[in-house]
Amino acid sequence: TLMFFCFITMAQFYILGEYLDYRNIATIHIFLLLLFWVLCGSIFTFVTIHQINHWYEKPMKDFAKATNQVAEGDFSVYVAPIHSADKMDYIDYMFLDFNKMVEELGSIETLKTDFISNVSHEIKTPIAVMKLALDKTNNTGAGTAALQEELFRIERYTDLVLAFQRIGSSS
């Protein structure tokens, strides 16, 4: 930016050079003119950096923080749009789409947890009924022993699934 303003000053000197005699202008006036343009360039640069930080960099840092929270399993994250509804830009739409995705992921995670919990409990009930029926028959045949062993294996796997589900929901 500073180079741009220096270029403008040089262009002004070139244009005015046809009408003014630089030998008659005091050096302090040339210095003040250059100082003026340096000051203008500095103010323009400061305002531009502030605007970029406010409207782009800070929202992107907040967005990065939110994506990190989602990656760690926190689906309660919400990123607010920067502008009002009538002045939305691409960043605002990206934030809204992100919020929709996070909401869907949270719903899917809840469905998955409920499904695993319900299915595991629904499997445990028939296993318990079959084990009770086998105990009442008092058959000691090879088929009965194999059936009891398989029921025990299924029950153990079901308990493992429930344990993994409890560990996953607590973290």
Topology:
Elements: H1 2-17, H2 27-71, H3 90-137, H4 142-170
- Give the averaged pLDDT, no decimals: 82
Distance between the termini: 51 Å
**Approximately how much helix is present in the residues?**
over 70%
Strand segment tally = 0
* Outline type: rod-shaped
Rounded to an integer in angstroms, the radius of gyration calculated over CA atoms is 36 Å
Q: What does the largest sheet look like?
A: none
Structural commentary:
1% of the residues are buried. Helices cover 81% and strands 0% of the residues. The longest helix is centred in the middle third of the chain and has 48 residues. Helix 1 packs antiparallel against helix 2. The two termini are 51 Å apart. The mean pLDDT is 82. By secondary structure, the chain is mostly helical.
Key descriptive features of the protein:
0% strand; 171 residues; mainly alpha; 81% helix
In a nutshell, what does this entry contain?
The protein is mainly α and 171 residues long. The chain is 81% helix and 0% strand.
